[in-house]
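Q: Structure tokens for this one, please.
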Amino acid sequence: MKGEWSISSDGVRIQDGELGCAGRVRVDGMFLADVAFVASGNDLRAPLFPGDCLFSGLLLLAMSQKCNLHSELPLSPGFIESVDEISKIIDTWYPEASAVQLSSSQGSPAQGEIKKASGVGCFFSGGVDSFYSLMRHKDEITHLIFIHGFDIPLHKKENREVALVGVYRVAEALGMEVIEVSTDIRYLGDQLAFWGYYGIPVLMASSHLLSGVLGKVYLPASRTYSQLEPYYSHPYVDPMWSTGELQIVHDGACADRAQKCEAIAEWDLALQHLRVCWELEGELNCGVCEKCTRTAMAFDLVGKLDKCSVFSSPYQQELLTTFTYDFVRLGYLEEALMLARKYDNGELVAMLEEVYALIRGRKTAEELHLHFSEIDGTDSWGAVSRSVRPNLFAYIRENDPEWLIKKTRQTLPQMRELLFLVFWDRCRRWLFRSILRERWMRSLRHVIPGLRRRGER
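A: Here is the predicted structure, written as tokens:
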């Protein structure tokens, strides 16, 4: 262990419609950083245990440094035990984390003295996940929670204002209140760990700050139950942040991103105020990034794109082939393909199948290349290569034939004719569509002008 993080605070303050909780973090008694959470809204009330806010936000950062975490503020009854279990789960999921000792120097009142507030909140960025959870629980939710300093950096105030316009209009249309939360925790956190790693506890910290107003908070899910794996937000772990005065609900994992788009496409309020883009440079959505393109395509598939006014420019299907895909984005692409099949859109199905196969095959080849030295170093490489090579060749031939042709022509020029025969036998349609047709059109461009000149004579 490197030492112990200690959290101290003067408690919460309420002034001019703002509720603030600032803490000071020390490592073995030496100053490390100040961290603050500030909420603004109507009729805010101080939480009974402000220590829960700071403790939640700093837990994973302390774990990333392998430091014990101690609070000089009282924590909710049973909170230490729940958070300790969370730390053990995170420890098994991520090698950069380490389960640490957690403690508080002040006791907590008995559980029976705690009462939940009547408000129900939902984290709301204006995105697909947010709108889906809001649509499901709009008869129950009383407050929308918008965080500045989370996905939108604290210094980008203009971006914040662009995003907030839609949030307030949605709240007004539904008769809800908006609570804005600002935090500077990323100034400390980004120096120590990857943002996604400790981002969800920042949401939990904001929830605990608002527990004087909200007794229940919905956290919109970003993945489905079919995609469960170690991840920063998880339907098993998220509710463990709950206390006697606050219930955390992981919501919406029953639907994937394409299904959520399909659902909220029936809601005009979502079509008018949806925000999915990271850019926010003077407009809500750029319309040309990967996220904008696949979201607009989903609305197009369900026949609602003409009623969706939030994209600044028409989406272009061909852009899908130009984006960089990790395995998460590749999953979103597969979800869009399933939606296209459901609505029997032959043109988009064909295009998405080709893009998906191309990207998936290329990523498989890249992964294999990264681990090739390990494979090559095995004692039984000869037997492995003889058994794997035909299957690998067949897989790449079907999923990324263009890459395979290019690489083989570069490394085995003497095999060009044989390679072409193989592809003519197995991928005749693809060859004609992608290569022969292009050559034929190129030759026509040279022949037709000549024929025209002869005709003129």
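A few notes: Residues 428-456 form the longest helix (29 residues). The mean pLDDT is 84.
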